[in-house]
Design a protein that fits this description.
alpha/beta; Rossmann fold; five-stranded parallel sheet; 50% helix
Length: 228
């Protein structure tokens, strides 16, 4: 089934994307709390969180055993499990589904690791395109500064150390994340991303995000008091 032939679902799908350190997770968590507090039917899902795959992914990363293709296939398995068990059923049930990263994370990161973009899009062809996808954009230097503030050192795969870009983790992060950002920017028009200025204060970003959702989603339909 092509995406043009997708079934019409009562739910709405909202995803956030961006570099590590962009603040997208903070923003989608705030949206989740806001919608819950207002009594809306809402569900939250995050990247690489399937209980079916999570332990295998953790072990593979820890031992640095994952090739780019294996890395990509494991994440695709994780996503497919969450999509079939959670995301799609809840969209059918009339929920607002919030995703902290979606298929575009794979399109960006896996392409940088050498996977063919056409192959990636075909592999994730079963997944719906979100009703709203927000790309939180900020300079690489700011992303790196934020990441280093929160931990003593960069993670191996986060910094792209598996690609031998540089023996220095900080420089490897800069190169790797720069390439990931370029992939994201190439997808803005292809998938209709809404770009959010992630350099703005958290409260200003949240105001803009809530306004966008209110403008594009009939929230009244998703209130728990609504009887279909």
């Amino acid at each position: 089934m092509t995406r043009a032939m997708e079934e019409k679902l009562p739910g709405k799908l909202i995803a956030v994307e961006g570099l590590d350190g962009s603040g997208k997770s903070t923003q989608i968590h705030l949206v989740h709390q806001w919608l819950q507090s207002k009594g809306y039917r809402v569900f939250f899902s995050e990247w690489n969180s399937s209980v079916l795959v999570r332990e295998a992914t953790r072990k593979g990363k820890k031992r640095q055993l994952l090739t780019p293709t294996t890395f990509s296939l494991i994440h695709a398995t994780d996503f497919a499990d969450r999509y079939e068990r959670q995301i799609l059923p809840l969209l059918r049930a009339g929920y607002l589904v919030l995703c902290d990263r979606y298929i575009f994370t794979a399109f960006a990161r896996d392409a940088v690791r050498g996977c063919d973009p056409a192959w990636l899009r075909k592999m994730y062809g079963f997944a719906r395109i979100p009703d709203i996808t927000m790309l939180f954009k900020l300079p690489l230097a700011v992303a790196l500064e934020r990441i280093l503030e929160g931990r003593p050192q960069l993670k191996y795969f986060e910094a792209g150390m598996d690609l031998d870009l540089s023996p220095d983790p900080t420089e490897s992060f800069r190169i790797f994340q720069g390439r990931v950002l370029a992939e994201y920017l190439r997808m803005v028009d292809e998938f209709g991303f809404t770009v959010v200025d992630a350099t703005q204060p958290v409260h200003r970003q949240q105001t803009a995000v809530r306004r966008l959702i209110q403008d594009r989603v009939d929230l009244g339909f998703f209130h728990k008091r609504y009887i279909q």
